[in-house]
Each structure stands twice: as C-alpha cells, then as structure tokens.
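Researcher: Please predict.
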Amino acid sequence: MRFIDAVYFLFLLTLSLDPTGFHSRLKDLLFAVLVIYGVIYCLKRRVYLAPINRVTFLAILLIPLWGAFIAYITGELKDSAYATSQVRSMLYICIFLFIVTMRLDVLLKAIWINGIIMSIVTLVLFFLSQLGGIFLAAIYDYCNASDNFTMAYNRNFLGFSVNGLYLKAGSLIIFSFIYNLYQYKGRFKLLFSAVLFLSLMVAGSRTPMLVQLLILLIYLYDRNFIGKFMTRLSAVALLGMLIILTYMLATQKNEKSNEVKYDNFESYVEDIEDKGHPIWGAGLGSEFFAKGRNMRLSYTELSYMDILRMYGLPVGICFIFFFFAPYFWLWKYYPRSLFLKRYTQGYVLFLILSGTNPLLLGSIGLTALAMFMAIVNKTSEMEKQKRELLLESDGLGTVEEENKPLVVDNCMLR
C-alpha cells in the first residue's frame, strides 16, 4: 500500500467521524491533497477513464450550476447559502480522480476497516447511553447540540420505545458488512460481522435496521447452509416476514417520522403541480412550504424529491440516473462475481438509505458515488485491455480468452 493510500483512509475516517468539519478542517485539507495528487497522476500516466464516468463526472458538477441559474433568472433563489453549499458539495465527486489511482483490493479494505471503526464507535456510545445518568445526558446533549457526526433518536417501533444512535456516515457501514461477509476469511469474521451488523441495528432508525436484515438474509441464502430446498423455503418465509415488518413500520400511525415524511411528500407534489415547474424545476436554492415541518424550506430529508422539485422532471431524472449508473453498468459482470453483484446491490441499498436522509447530495453521497465510479473504471479498463489483446492476436485463442475470469488488480471478478 502506498503512503497516499493511507492518506485516503484518513480522509474516509475523517469523513465518517467529522463529516461537517465541526471540529477541524482536516477533511477538506485531505480532500484537496488527494485530488491534486489524482489530477497529476492521471495526466502524467494518461489514466483511462470510462466514457460513462466522464459523463457522470461532468454532469454532477454542471447540473447544480444549471439549477442555480434557473433559480436566479426565475426569481426563486431564496436560500443562496444552501445553493452555494450544494454546489460546493458536488466538488467531492473530484475524489474520483484519486480513487482511480488505487488498487481495487486496497480501496475495498480501506472501506471495510473504516466501517469497523465506525461500528465500534457507534456501539461504545450506544452502550454508554444505556447506562443512563451522566453518560446518557452527556451523549444526547452533545448529539443535539452539535448535530455533527452522530444523531440521537427516541423512536416508537410498533408500540415499543427505542433509544438509538446513528452516525451520519453510518450508511457506509453497508459496504463493510458486505465485504466482511463475502470476502474476509480471517479468524475474526464472526466477531466483525456481529459488530458491523449491530451498529446499524441499534441506530434507532427503521431503514438501516431493515437494510442490515436484508443483507444478512441474502448472505444466508447465498451460502446455502441447510440445503438448497430448505434454504429457499426459509428465505421465502423470512423475506415475507421482512416485507410485512417493513409495511407495518411504514404505515405505523402516530409515528412522528412517518407523519413528517408523508406530509412533506404531499407538499412536494403540490409545489411541483401548482407552480408549474415539472419541466425546468424551481431551481437550486428555491423554497417550498413543507407541511411536515409547517414552514418554508429549501430542502428536506427526501433527497430524490428535492432533486425533482429543484431541477424538474427531465433533468432531475437524469441527475438521479447518474447516481445509479454504476449499478447498471456493472450488471454484465454479475454472473462472474457474486461478491461484485452483492457489493453493487449494497450500493443501491445505500442510495435508498441516503435518499431518505439529507446525505445523498453531500460529501458522503458523492464519495460513495466516486468509489463505485472507480470500480466501473477498473472493470472497464480491464475489458478495454482484453479487447486490445484479442485484436493483436488476430482472433487466435479468442474462446479461451473469453472464458478467463476478469481480474482487476488482486480482485478476481468471476
């Protein structure tokens, strides 16, 4: 591992534990160092960038500028501070220029270890809070005062009151959990799996809990521990129970979070229809009346509805597509690699989780997108090299080459 890769790991750790730069500006400093290194490296060595990555990179940077322009010329620019912060946040897609210089196995291990650290921090804070007294008061007062790296919850789950702690970057733990289940073969596999699983289960939030349960269910199905028939029968039964539980939690009455989200969703639809912005959008930095909060806001936790309201349906749908583009591009490699298939599906779960929290359009969401753009680039680069070798051989050994597994650095994609 290179020294600069260790700098990237430190950036990930800082992003996870201090995402808003509340305690220091270390995240921004490390980001600048990594991007400068990445630009120089890519230019010097003429690093191949997949076409889909070039388009995604430019779109993520330019679409917010278009949204700000629309808001300005239509007179809807009411929250210039949010518009400025949103444009600045989009710059984090530039971390892609560094990540493409990393070996894939180093990148995956950095994400994995970072997730374990986040999980340990979450569980330590959670168990301290359960002791009550001064521990509970100190942790919850800090969370409510700074609202920086972690959030404290008290939720009602089907009649049960649940206290929870959730790191703002906690959704990144999804990737660590999947890597630990499918790739890590060490002696601490069970321990690390338990730590990663519990960290989101104690979040006090419905979506992270359901996501972790779904990942574990799919893993048990893939491993076929009790025979094919019993595994499939158990999977169907457990999946049915998970769907029922999801429905019960989503439709639970007198649950404040549900009420706020449903009222806000209705407000989005009304704003788009009443103001006539379905085509060009209201613009970045515009405001609307959110019934769930009973006030005018420029954004809420429903990130995808924010995108559609601000950018309009045509541009908004394209913008959302670019976040999902790595999943669709990597589809053709799924039959060769179960790990790649599940890891990329975990990215979709991350997008779902981040889309119901204001994380998608920030440094956390953009860093995750950049990571999967890098995975796309690695597989695309190997495919390009493979085609060149086939052309040089004038078709000799074509069948044998096509049957070979795709190898990206030290990670084999079967």
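Model: Residues 397-403 have pLDDT under 50 and may be disordered.
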